[in-house]
């Protein structure tokens, strides 16, 4: 299963806001373990584009600090699990998810122009 983490610092840290991340750390997992990872730079923030971009890469779970309602809705329509409220190191967030201890806070931004204040 592929798990993407909206990240910064070349995929090391979970970013606060999905659409404005530096890129995505995409982790390949099998039997509850990380087997591989790659960093994919953010190709650009356009409404509706990034969920499709990640879906096309086979991502089944997206982890982020927060994200807009539109992106969350598209992920849900595609059957991709959305986990928001994550912080810290991307690899640790994925391991916590695999262990069943990372739970979504449901932090969704409703006003796109206030993306820098998500989760407040």
Give a written overview of the molecule.
The chain is α/β, with parallel strands linked by helices and 120 residues long. It has one domain (2-109): Nucleotidyltransferase, domain 5 (2-Layer Sandwich). It is 22% helix and 33% strand. It has helices at 49-56, 69-77, 90-99; strands at 2-8, 13-14, 23-30, 33-41, 59-64, 67-68, 81-84, 108-109. The strands form 2 sheets. Strands 1, 2, 3, 4, 5 and 7 form a 6-stranded mixed sheet that branches. α1 runs parallel beside α2 (69-77). The longest helix has 10 residues, at 90-99. It is globular and about 35 Å long.
Average residue-wise pLDDT: 90
| Count of distinct strands | 8
SSE order, one letter for each helix or strand? EEEEHEEHEHE
Q: Could you state the CATH homologous superfamily?
A: Dinitrogenase iron-molybdenum cofactor biosynthesis domain
CATH class: Alpha Beta
Main sheet characteristics? 6 strands, mixed
Backbone CA Rg: 13 Å
Distance between the termini: 32 Å
User: What is the helix tally?
Assistant: 3
Q: Return the domain count.
A: 1
Low-confidence stretches: 112-120
- Say what the CATH topology is: Nucleotidyltransferase, domain 5
In percent terms, what proportion of residues is strand?
25-35%
Rough shape? globular
Q: Percentage of helical residues?
A: 10-25%
Quaternary state of the chains: single chain
CATH architecture: 2-Layer Sandwich
Organism: Caproiciproducens faecalis
Pfam families: Nitro_FeMo-Co
Protein name: NifB/NifX family molybdenum-iron cluster-binding protein
InterPro entries: Di-Nase_FeMo-co_biosynth, DiNase_FeMo-co_biosyn_sf, MTH1175_dom
């Amino acid at each position: 299963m592929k798990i993407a983490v909206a990240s910064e610092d070349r995929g090391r840290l979970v970013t606060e806001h999905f659409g404005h991340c530096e890129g995505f750390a995409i982790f390949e997992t099998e039997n509850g373990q990380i087997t591989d990872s790659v960093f994919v730079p953010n190709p650009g923030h356009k409404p509706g584009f990034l969920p499709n971009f990640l879906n096309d890469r086979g991502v089944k779970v997206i982890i982020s600090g927060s994200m807009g309602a539109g992106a969350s809705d598209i992920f849900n329509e595609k059957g991709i699990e959305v986990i928001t409220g994550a912080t810290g190191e991307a690899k640790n967030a994925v391991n916590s998810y695999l262990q069943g201890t990372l739970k979504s806070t449901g932090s969704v931004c409703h006003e796109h122009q206030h993306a820098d204040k998500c989760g407040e």
